[in-house]
Amino acid sequence: MSFSPLIRQLIDALRILPGVGQKTAQRMALQLLERDRSGGLRLAQALTRAMEGVGYCRQCRTLSEDGLCPQCSDPRRDDALLCVVEGPMDVFAVEQTGYRGRYFVLKGHLSPLDGLGPEAIGIPELEERIARGTFAEVILATNPTVEGEATAHYIAQMLAPRGLTVSRIAHGVPLGGELEMVDGGTLAHAMAGRRPIGL
Amino acid sequence: MSFSPLIRQLIDALRILPGVGQKTAQRMALQLLERDRSGGLRLAQALTRAMEGVGYCRQCRTLSEDGLCPQCSDPRRDDALLCVVEGPMDVFAVEQTGYRGRYFVLKGHLSPLDGLGPEAIGIPELEERIARGTFAEVILATNPTVEGEATAHYIAQMLAPRGLTVSRIAHGVPLGGELEMVDGGTLAHAMAGRRPIGL
């Protein structure tokens, strides 16, 4: 091996980052060492603080170092709307749409083969949150995968007796693509979900 | 913004890594927070140790926390061979070829437009190293770019009076590709550098 021990340890440690293999880790380590040591130290500090300080919001269960996350503590948001997502990254994605209601973050999706039932992903806590809240509509924004659909279906059934509106985000053709590139299942959803054009 | 301050700071800090943009940094931060906090802390520690502890080898000038790097301190390597490269990453690349001589690491290549002359990239130190050493051959393994070629040419001229063999790594077609995909300049080098097949 041609790297000294500290550099080798840094390269190994960088490989825990998603999408970073041996070659990328080498390039990252040497670039930090040669060009940006103070940036490397800042990164080390930010990592330590976040790993030790960040917990979960007690209300929506997204990642946050405060007991209540920015979305839950904002008094200007709509308390009649609840959006259910699979993870903290999805909160960020939905925020970009301009949605300004509340959130509930599951721990992933139902996956019986992996032993992940309703308790494991936090469905009881979701039920409790809805019982405590004043929601008129629950938007199920789990992923458009088989497991995400099954999870949405399960939650919809569970909420049926409560008399609130339970909705699912629309499936259809994404913007900016070409129709011939869209798979048949998506296109079938887009056809079934067609809407009259208001002129 | 939908992330709490510590998470936002971590995302910003991750963006100093080469090739990491906003989206990748978000994915890295959330993955570490959700799945591998101890790995994140190990990475923070490895970063701190490396940024504070790694210096340069006093002989070949590659990155190393010891005064002499593993290559310079290994007594079994060939003291008659010196390989000159542009940076520490290139040492690693050349090591993979099975080369077991010594190294000298420049700080990049000559680039008069950026104000990088011979002093800036360490040519005087290279001259000194060669004067002190017992080299019979100096292999110029700078990059096959215009600047790398110019740097190799400059060093070859400087070393001409010393009566050592000065060689340049071969240019030619890389293994595993197809001839029609190789650029004309490379193919011209491959033709000019053709060798009789020993049967």
Automatic annotation (TrEMBL), chains A, B:
It comes from the Bacteria. Residues 80-174 form the Toprim domain. Belongs to the RecR family. GO terms for molecular function: DNA binding; zinc ion binding. Gene3D superfamilies: 3.40.1360.10, 6.10.250.240, RecR Domain 1. A zinc finger (C4-type) spans 57-72. Keywords: DNA damage, DNA recombination, DNA repair, Metal-binding, Zinc, Zinc-finger. The gene is recR. GO terms for biological process: DNA recombination; DNA repair. It holds the Pfam family RecR_C. May play a role in DNA repair. It seems to be involved in an RecBC-independent recombinational process of DNA repair. It may act with RecF and RecO. The keyword DNA damage applies. This is Recombination protein RecR.
